[in-house]
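Lab notebook, bench 4. Still working through the backlog of constructs that have no structural model yet. Next entry is a single chain of 274 residues. Request: give me the structure tokens for it.
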Amino acid sequence: MPELPEVETIKRELRPRIRNQRIVDCTILRPDVIAHPRPSSFCREIIGEKIRDVTRKAKYLILELSNGKRIIIHLRLSGTMALAPIDVEPEKFTRLVLRLEDCQLLFKEPRVLGRIYLLKNREKPSNLKGYFSLGCEPISSDFDFTYLRSKIKHRKARIKSLLLDQNICAGVGNIYSDEALYRAGIRPLRRAHRITKQETTRLIESLKDVLHEGIANFGTSVSDYRRTDGKDGNFQNFLYVYGREDEPCRKCGTIIKLQKIGNRSTRYCPKCQK
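Model written out:
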């Protein structure tokens, strides 16, 4: 699933290309990806509007429109955004085509799990509750010792599970939680209330570092994620544990282990992570 660094990369690549462009036409190829409002009114409400800005909130990509509405795109497991010339026919798995003044913006999703919403300023549809209950992003200045300590010090859940909780660590998923815990030297199975103050500080620093490095390397391409030009990200070349189960740890040589925590695959080094 595209996480914060992948969606931030998409945002940065789209912004200079499509900002202030008018939406000339809209073609919905899979109506079920339009989660709000009804597909029959989605296109009608955006055609003719300009894209004033491209922003992001956690794992959600946002197109700010000239009529005050927002197109919110949740890429989910395998969604990607691509730019194409106007005369290019949509490829397989393209679910939505927005024709702009000098290009096409394509939403592709092989598994049809991604969803798109069109919201008025104060509109809060019931099927988008997660968007309105997001916690702090670790790259935010608000994500500090006081914030994280208050979220974990009384919790008996595994620390890995809490890092995946979007009400706590907005934008973090399986890849960057595994990598941050490795860098902090904390085993993912540890109970959150047993994490010390010193470990909390290390974890905050690790989260911030790994997310910023992921952004600097255009995200992680280990499955479906691609940049807007179809190229891979680069951060998969710098992973220490994610996707490296049964391989030796890059630091100590111990074999990286794979374990399920809350139905999520988790990788860690038994020696480097206490």
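Notes after review: The two ends are 27 Å apart (CA to CA). Residues 141 and 208 are 10 Å apart (CA to CA). Flag for follow-up if needed.
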